[in-house]
């Protein structure tokens, strides 16, 4: 699969910004691009043909980017469509739902072409691996047991799809650290992927319990978080987490980390 095979919908109210974004998309190799000023006509178009990628601004005339991605995730046909946000918005209450909905990337406005190209490469790799993955292909990942811990069902689904694309099928989900610890009493895992901010038992408490009180103290734990507080991030690191990744999770990063944890290489 190549970039010129992907259908992209761009939703941006500013004609200048739409032109800049579509020109950048063409420069990196995309050809099939449809542009919209508002979200509603784009959603109507998605009912006719399912796009591979939706690139949207946050503040649209008829709804926010958060509203848009929420509606997409509520549709069985659109719930897996790659969503990329381009916005100057920095407020947590706007961006966190986008992160939880499994956006492939959140780019600042203005953005550079290299940032967009990286996000699109991730998207292409994800779609290619998902479409070309052969469930009968017996690899070292076939028997890998992974536990996903996140209070967002959409986030868990996004990570699960990424693992499926890599070739991992044996995945268990938990809605918070408390449920994860109960599951770990019954099953052993090769990798735990956890959110940080969760009710009951958060990601930090989960890691500390795994390392000091469980019978799986050496299991790799990959923490996914949108946390920006440096003292909290330092606390996570000191709890002997195996890796800390930003939310939204970069697919290529997920793939590389899984390879490192299982084979010791990123190939």
From TrEMBL:
Keywords: Phosphoprotein
Species this protein is from: Marinobacterium maritimum
Protein name per its UniProtKB record: Response regulator
This protein's record includes keyword Calcium: no
Modified residues (4-aspartylphosphate): 195
SMART domains attached to this UniProt entry: REC (SM00448)
Residue stretches making up the Response regulatory domain: 7-124, 145-262
UniProt cross-references to Pfam families, sorted A to Z: Response_reg
